[in-house]
Automatic annotation (TrEMBL), chain B:
GO terms for molecular function: 2 iron, 2 sulfur cluster binding; metal ion binding; oxidoreductase activity. Residues 2-78 form the 2Fe-2S ferredoxin-type domain. Gene3D superfamilies: 3.10.20.30, [2Fe-2S]-binding domain. This is (2Fe-2S)-binding protein. CDD domains: fer2. Keywords: 2Fe-2S, Iron, Iron-sulfur, Metal-binding. Pfam families: Fer2, Fer2_2. It comes from Streptomyces diastatochromogenes.
Length: 707, 152
């Protein structure tokens, strides 16, 4: 590898990103994904470009290649799950290279051996923004230099546009025609510094997804659509209760059915491999299975809720002479239920394995698959496929391990798919939780604010107390103690219970409950003090940036406009991932059992918004999540089983529950990009709950409200 | 197993399949047409929504026998060559999709709605049952209205 001089990035943080040149026939440059620490201001790199070339690409890096076909290819070590990361990265690359967006290709990288290949925590844009731009800016400098040499012109006189270098006399050369000679340039004759934000013409421009046409024509390929020769459809019979144990299998009838290839016992059930999914489901239903009840077979929601409530740590002593505003909240389990059920294609051979599925953690998945089938991780190849939604579900790789086990046992490639029933009844869930909040008011202001909570954590024991609600020790402070408000002494504690239920991080994780509960209490404090909820927030929020989004949402949403009886506005804010958002929701709750959120106005400041159109989409999705989890969508546990089994009873919002008007206002910023994928959920949830409370004169305490 | 012939996206196809085999699996597993997606298998999520003789169906609950000698249209058959159907174009213009998995079904449902009523009201649009777990409903509404205008 050839180490090109590190250059300061254009961003205000002045972080520097190293770029390397990879020895290849075409121009190939690579940037490490972990940020290099800031150097002292003004300190220049001790040396310029090295001429040392190393072959091969470093697995840890983001690698950009300019092909002779004039495509810019960046294999992205992230999952595209709908959040639009491939479009955002394509925009960063197109910006700094002056390439046409259509010439930029962002395939998803296979699982790597090392480095950062994690998609989660709303971190993708912020982790890629520096390296991707530096990479493209370096490639551009080399392409310009190559053209200058070809034309015997000073490099500084050349311009770039539309994936070409342009000479002052109008001559053009495509990047593809220059890539071979640019690969041999080690010291670019023009600076390779990313553009200042003032010159951005791609970044910040609302842009349609790069895969939009594939999607609307049905060409976008998900794991179940990938053509792998001979991969046979496979489904799994699962127990009626969560983690029920298989007692006996009579598979004679199933095996006798046409089109059935194999029946394979798995830790979680019995898999059937068949010619089509129709044959596989038929055979699954023909299995005669007896199951022992799972470890929670005597537990239902009422007991779980009581145990959770009992596990909430005690509130501390309120300041002397203060008046309390207290509230308790319960949140139900919620399924992830991505539209694309878990699906994985696996081809496991004696000495190697190859898998195709979507994963937010493909390196961990590869290691787990290797262990499950007894291969070395280096012998397992994982191709990351686009996902039909995730919301955190694809942090886990349950289906991939099952597919690998079945492929190994059946000695053939398989395409294993969970049914929707499997997904809802055995899939992972946002943990149920119970929260107690006390705000202490004295002299017309909040002098102390405390939240204590308990949530369910996953037990891997199949028997005994720990599987059935053993109390977990308090686990320290809450994630919400960011000091969003000037509430005097802010404190918190959390405890919990362990249950043998499959859990997983759900979009916005703990903030989805903790911050939502807080935003409801903020409204209740304002009511107690006789202050308008927006005015109260404006005077108590600590940060200018979060006050700015509040003001924007309140103004754009006409906060305080007269509403008919049974209708009301609600507001809430949230700050996380280096970003902040306010949500104003209007609700028609004239039928309190059947409320409709009619309008939502959001305002967000995420630093530099790479693709405002994509950001708006994320806020829109978060709004639908908020409406769903607050008003109507959750999962019940009845005697150790999930009651719901499809979208008929897991009541995620449909069109008739979505706002008729949705607006997102994005505050201008040239700051470093923050996270956005999960940002909107707590604010939307809080705003919907607060609107409902104001419309009905009730105090919402248990979510979803209609359950 | 019997043999069933029907028109698929304008072309005649014949498959050997059990009479009760849902059209979805005939399309996906026998014919390699993967635009219609499995999302529930019980006609509830509507990710597989396609057309039978121009009317909306959920292929996961329609047996292949019911399609014999009829015309099936999936998302793959909606565009006219490289020219997108106005509903597909509106979906692009409004950048509706996020993960995209439900969108073939959403587009086929919207197309069927616009066939029934050229200028759907908000109530008509609210009656669309297709789930979008990414929550793109506001853009779906906008795209349907845009497609309706483009038909004028």
């Amino acid at each position: 590898m050839d180490r090109t001089e590190p250059l300061p990035s254009a961003g205000p943080s002045r972080r520097r990103f190293m770029v390397y040149t990879v020895a290849a026939a075409t121009l190939t440059v690579a940037a490490p994904l972990a940020c290099t620490p800031s150097r002292a201001e003004g300190a220049e790199p001790s040396r310029a470009a090295s001429d040392v070339l190393v072959t091969g690409t470093d697995e840890e890096m983001l690698v950009l290649e300019v092909t002779e076909a004039n495509h810019i290819v960046v294999r992205l070590p992230r999952a595209e799950v709908g959040q639009g990361i491939t479009t955002a990265v394509a925009m960063m690359i197109a910006e700094e290279l002056d390439a046409r967006l259509a010439d930029v290709r962002i395939p998803l990288a296979d699982a790597r051996t090392k480095g950062n290949q994690y998609t989660g925590g709303s971190s993708s844009v912020s982790s890629l923004y520096g390296p991707a731009r530096q990479l493209a800016a370096t490639a551009r400098a080399k392409l310009v230099t190559a053209a200058a040499r070809r034309w015997h012109l000073p490099a500084r006189t050349l311009r770039t546009r539309d994936t070409m270098v342009v000479a002052p006399d109008g001559r053009t050369a495509t990047f593809g025609s220059l890539t071979a000679s640019a690969a041999r340039i080690h010291r670019p004759a023009v600076p390779s510094k990313p553009k200042p934000a003032s010159r951005h013409r791609v970044i910040g421009r609302p842009t349609t997804r790069i895969d939009a046409r594939d999607i609307v024509t049905g060409r976008a390929k998900y794991a179940g659509d990938v053509a792998v020769a001979g991969a046979k459809p496979t489904v799994v019979a699962r127990p009626p209760t969560i983690r029920g144990k298989l007692v006996s299998v009579d598979d004679r009838a199933a095996r006798a059915l046409p089109g059935v290839h194999a029946v394979v016992r798995l830790p979680g059930g019995v898999a059937v491999v068949a010619d089509t999914f129709h044959h596989a489901f038929r055979a699954r239903d023909a299995l005669r299975l007896t199951w022992a009840p799972g470890p929670l077979a005597r537990l239902s929601d009422a007991q779980i809720r009581a145990r959770l409530k009992a596990a909430v740590p005690r509130l501390g002593t309120p300041p002397h002479g203060s008046t309390p505003v207290e509230a308790e909240f319960a949140f139900a389990f919620v399924g992830h239920a991505p539209m694309e059920v878990l699906t994985a294609v696996a081809d496991v051979r004696a000495d190697r394995a190859e898998l195709w599925f979507s994963s937010q953690t493909p390196m961990d998945a590869r290691d787990a698959v290797a262990q499950a089938v007894g291969l070395r991780p280096s012998k397992v190849k994982v191709h990351v496929v686009r996902a039909g939604g995730s919301f955190g579900r694809r942090l886990n790789y349950d289906a991939a391990i099952e597919a690998a086990l079945v492929s190994k046992a059946a000695r053939r490639p398989v395409k294993l798919m969970w049914s929707r029933g499997d997904d809802i009844r055995h899939g992972r869930m946002r943990p149920a939780s119970h929260h107690r909040i006390r705000a202490s008011v004295a002299g017309g202001r909040v002098v102390a604010f405390e939240q204590v909570m308990a949530s369910v954590s996953e037990s891997y024991d199949d028997a005994g107390l720990s599987a059935q609600g053993g109390v977990r020790a308090a686990s320290g402070p809450l994630p919400s103690q960011t000091g969003l408000y000037n509430f005097g002494r802010v404190s918190g504690d959390s405890g919990g219970i362990e249950l043998a239920v499959p859990l997983g991080a759900w979009r916005s994780v703990d903030s989805g409950t903790v911050r939502t509960a807080e935003e409801i209490v903020v409204d209740e404090i304002a009511r107690k003090l006789g202050v308008d909820p927006v005015a109260f927030r404006r005077t108590t929020l600590r940060g200018k940036a979060v006050r700015a989004v509040l003001d924007k949402a309140a103004a754009a949403g006409h906060w305080g406009r007269p509403m008919p009886d049974g209708c009301a506005q609600g507001i809430a804010v949230h700050e996380e991932y280096g970003s902040r958002v306010a949500c104003l929701a209007e609700i028609d709750a004239s039928d309190p059992k059947n409320p409709r959120v009619t309008k939502v106005v959001m305002a967000a400041d995420v630093g530099t918004a790479v693709n405002p159109r994509g950001l708006e989409a994320q806020l829109m999705g978060a709004t639908t999540d908020g409406i769903s989890v607050i008003l109507q969508a959750g999962l019940h546990i009845d005697r150790g089983a999930v009651r719901e089994s499809s979208f008929a009873d897991f009541r995620y919002a449909r069109q008739r529950h979505a706002p008729l008007v949705f607006e997102a206002h994005i505050l201008p910023s040239t700051g470093d990009p923050g996270g956005a994928g999960e940002l909107g959920v707590p604010a939307a949830s809080g705003a919907v709950a607060n609107a409902y409370a104001r419309a009905t004169g009730t105090a919402p305490r248990s979510f979803p409200l209609t359950f | 197993m019997r043999s069933y012939s029907f028109t698929l996206n304008g072309r005649q196809v014949t498959v050997q399949a059990p009479a009760d085999m849902p059209l979805l699996w005939v399309l996906r597993d026998l014919l390699g047409v993967t635009g219609p997606k499995y999302g529930c298998g019980v006609g509830v999520c509507r990710a597989c929504t396609s057309h039978l003789d121009g009317a909306e169906i959920q292929p996961c609950v329609v047996p292949v026998a019911d399609c014999a000698n009829r015309a099936v249209t999936t998302i793959e058959g909606l565009a006219d060559g490289d020219t997108l159907h106005p509903v597909q174009q509106a979906w692009m213009d409004c950048d509706v999709a996020q993960c995209g998995f439900c969108q073939p079904g959403q587009i086929m449902a919207a197309t069927a709605l616009l066939k029934r009523t050229s200028h759907p009201t908000d109530a008509d649009i609210d009656a669309i049952e297709n789930i979008c777990r990414c929550g793109t409903y506001a853009r779906i509404r906008e795209a349907i209205k845009k497609a309706a205008e483009s038909g004028d």
